[in-house]
Amino acid sequence: MAQNVVLITGATDGLGRRVAEKLASPDVHLLLHGRDAARGREVAKTVEAAGGGATFYQADFASLQAVRQLAEKIAAAHRQIDVLINNAGIALDGSRRESEDGFELTFAVNYLAPFLLTRLLLPCLGKERRSRIINVASAGQAPVDFGNVMLERGYEGMLAYRQSKLAQILFTFDMAEELKGTKVTTATLHPATYMDTTMVRGSGIQPLNSVDTGADAVIALVTKPVEAVSGKYFDVQRESRANAQAYDREARRKLRDLSMKLTGLA
After folding, report:
1. CB 10 within 8 A of CB 84
2. pTM of the predicted model, to two decimals?
């Protein structure tokens, strides 16, 4: 990974931070995204202390305008992005909430934000050499209900989370087909079950795995040969099968068209 530029969203805590710490080296410049500037500077210092380079970018994924501004800043500063790790995400309990744009919040943060960011940064991916897109999903998956995508009826926090994560997988598979024959590949994974993260502990769940387990799984998709990971879904480091909807071309098309419309790209 000589002189690679790696963008990690949600890099100030949990899995994203651990991935950044493990990738820190003189050969890698890390672009660290997060909402908290103080924590972002802290992670950047940790990376630099390990001999790596780092730049922090602040953005709240509950706002699509913030995502657009983030993409503009990154594209202005970096002609080539070698790896984009879409890791940022939330899991909510309680009542239904909406994003700044009026979308169900979990769907907006976990799916629409990375969809838009990836689309806007495509000109920087594969520009000079091969690039990879890695989407951090989950084994917890629920089919996207195209008649109730924003869960205005029958809202449950875990259902919202699972739907958003399967949407990420549909997006991954759809992009893999779209980018076939280019210098850009995509892969997705469930990093580990109930890692020891703030999100898991905050949900009152006893962690079952270390963050290192998940970070190693993500890094495997960064470092393994492209043909071994491209267009595939992994359960930790084992190639696996996602929910059946992910293999439905019509469902993927419907989600793509909807996402282009919701993010203003259509």
Report:
1. no
2. 0.95
Taking alpha carbons only, the member of 58, 48, 71, 81 closest to residue 11 is 58
CA dihedral sign, ordered 172, 92, 112, 34: negative
**Domains of the chain, start order:** 4-262 (3.40.50.720)
Per the model's pLDDT, the better-predicted residue between 24 and 200 turns out to be 24
pLDDT at 194: 73
111 is a catalytic site residue: no
Question: What is the DSSP code (8-state) at residue 230?
Answer: T
User: Residue 113 has which token pair?
Assistant: 């934000």
213/10 Cα distance (integer angstroms): 17
**Which candidate, 126, 108, 114, 133, places its Cα nearest to that of 232?**
133
Pick the catalytic residue from 57, 111, 155, 161: 161
CA dihedral 241, 243, 246, 249 (to 10 degrees): 110
